[in-house]
Specification:
Chain lengths: ~120, ~110
């Protein structure tokens, strides 16, 4: 399983950005997926999760109402739509595959989102 | 959300040392805990799940233990490639907010 994020960049506060994660596997539609971020010099923070079908989504309190996770199982793609971005959203964003509801076993290399004026 | 507190936040050790990192949760989580290793500029590496199950390919010098609210990650004989930051993550509340601990940096 290989994961590759894209879509990061520099954005002004209040702006929007859409991250994508391309997943190389035949079994993408069977995996729950998540987004995790790491702000510069800070720890890991779980951001959002989605079940295999895409019908159920979950969010950290810090992003609920601003971020939307989605997936396209026909294209093996996971997305994170980020609206009303704040300076504190600056981080490297990782997509990761959930292993049996017990851990995150495969990770992408990450994409940097910088929110600054 | 369930809070995870790791201790120490950092430690100094030498090659060959036995290292123990603790993760305490704000409520009982049975054995629903994972551990990761993070090196600068790299994505996290999955080490342990269900508190003590070693992920495939992870060296056996890594081990995990604990249940309820208190968990430990032990490196039996620290190797040069083990200098990194380690994080615990609870999956008891999964899929709702599977929170991470604050991390423990293992330094030379």
């Amino acid at each position: 399983v290989q994961l590759l994020e894209s879509g990061g960049g520099l954005i002004q506060p209040g702006g929007s950005l859409r991250l994508s994660c391309a997943v190389s596997t035949q079994h993408f539609s069977g995996y729950a997926m998540t987004w995790v971020r790491q702000a510069p010099g800070k720890g890991l923070e779980w951001v959002s999760g989605i079940n295999p079908s895409g019908e159920s989504t979950y969010y950290a309190d810090s992003v609920r109402g601003r971020f939307t996770i989605s997936r396209d199982n026909s294209k093996n793609t996971l997305s994170l739509q980020m609206n009303n971005l704040r300076v504190e959203d600056t981080a490297v964003y990782y997509c990761a595959k959930v292993y049996a509801g017990s851990g995150l076993d495969y990770w992408g290399q990450g994409t940097l989102v910088t929110v600054s004026s | 959300a369930i809070q995870l507190t790791q201790s120490p936040s950092s430690l100094s050790a030498s090659v060959g040392d036995r290292v123990t990192i603790t993760c305490r949760t704000s409520q009982g989580i049975s054995r629903a805990l994972a551990w990761y290793q993070v090196k600068p500029g790299k994505p996290p590496k999955f080490l342990i799940y269900d508190a003590s199950s070693l992920e495939s390919g992870v060296p056996p010098r890594f081990s995990g233990s604990g249940t309820g609210t208190d968990f430990t990650l032990t490196i039996s004989s620290l190797q040069p490639e083990d200098f990194a930051t380690y994080y615990c993550q609870q999956f008891y509340s999964y899929p709702l907010q599977p929170t991470f601990g604050g991390g423990t940096k293992v330094e030379l």
